[in-house]
Automatic annotation (TrEMBL):
Residues in Reductase C-terminal domain copies: 312-397
Domain FAD/NAD(P)-binding: 5-292
Record has Cell membrane as a keyword: no
SUPFAM superfamilies, per database record: FAD/NAD(P)-binding domain (SSF51905), FAD/NAD-linked reductases, dimerisation (C-terminal) domain (SSF55424)
Record organism: Pseudomonas cremoris
Cofactor(s) needed: FAD
Name under which the protein is recorded: FAD-dependent oxidoreductase
Keyword Oxidoreductase: yes
GO molecular function, one term: oxidoreductase activity, acting on NAD(P)H
InterPro entries: FAD-oxidoreductase/Apoptosis, FAD/NAD-bd_sf, FAD/NAD-binding_dom, FAD/NAD-linked_Rdtase_dimer_sf, Reductase_C
Any one Gene Ontology cellular component term annotated for this protein: cytoplasm
Key words of the record: FAD, Flavoprotein, Oxidoreductase
Amino acid sequence: MNAPLIIVGAGHAGGRAALTLREEGYTGRLILIGDEPHLPYERPPLSKGLLQGTTDLAGCSLCDSDQLAELGIEHIAGNPVTQLQPQQHRLQLADGQWLPYAGLLLATGGRARRLPQVQANVLYLRTHDEALALRSVLNPGTRLVVVGGGFIGLEVAATARGLGCEVTVLEAGPRLAGRVLPPVISQALLELHREQGVDVRLNVALESIQADSVQWVDGQLLPCDLVVVGIGMQPNIELATAAGLEVGQGIRVDDYLRTSAPNIYAAGDVCEFRLGGRYQRQETWRNAEAQGRHAALNLLGREILFEALPGFWSDQYHWGLLTVGVMSPSVVTRALPGGGLLLFYLDAEQHLQGACGWAPGNSVAKDIKLCERLIAARIPLNPTGLADPELSLKHLLRG
């Protein structure tokens, strides 16, 4: 009997890969191994719809158990992989069982980064079960402190305000989401959250978290009922590291998403790939979707270069933030109706490299889609025209 294809990690990237393998005609044995008891699901709703109570697990799942059974995808939950032996093309499960593989995809994702030496009243948000635990205590009047001014922290803050909580956001840096956003968008986010009644504190150094308060290094004490920590993700690279695969901040891959070991690929939040000449990870819905599909195709021997553009979105109250491509030092700003912004990032030849849009609702989505086409078209652009809100991007696309 031929060895199966195995996917380790039953999150978004792993689930998408499994479904793609069947869509592309693979009929052999296919095993999907996950740490969580749930079927593959998407994570963006965790801080929005699921936390608000407007959606449930079924609403963010990629498939149901009947579909998996119909497709002949074996889902192993609660029996994680403990050891990987690339030379022998096999892995071991927690119950001691060894499974051989013909091809392997590592989509092990990550876990919420923890604050050291913290116990009481602290919750994190990375999984469905963590979202349910948090939802159960976000009651009107709850004094919530969010540690971390990145997207997870800010989305939790926005949802909690909508549920009637009193919210304070503590950010260690000088601006919100400073690692991924330009200063003008960070400032717009700051103003929006303060308008919505969130007490945002920047440049905060924490000393400790107590059962009923948070203390700054300078001695300030902030009373609270609950603390949510959103300070990033810790990629699950331990299995790959122990097996001798090349790792950095994630599992390193080549331009085909292949790891340093034969017949092993990586995808999703744990995958460290080259973009613009340097290694990086992308913790986004778009990346999990694209790399899950791509790794599946290459597991089937297609040998296709991974060239997908990065991008992400975030909903903040009634405003939407969308990005596509990569940021460059040369930026052109276009003011949009209603106080929105569209930022264009150009290279030295005035080709569009990336764009960032900030506007009410999803009104900027069409512009970002046009920017994606402009990036692909490689048309030299006039910065004056880009800055002019009266000049349509569709017109620029026609040259």
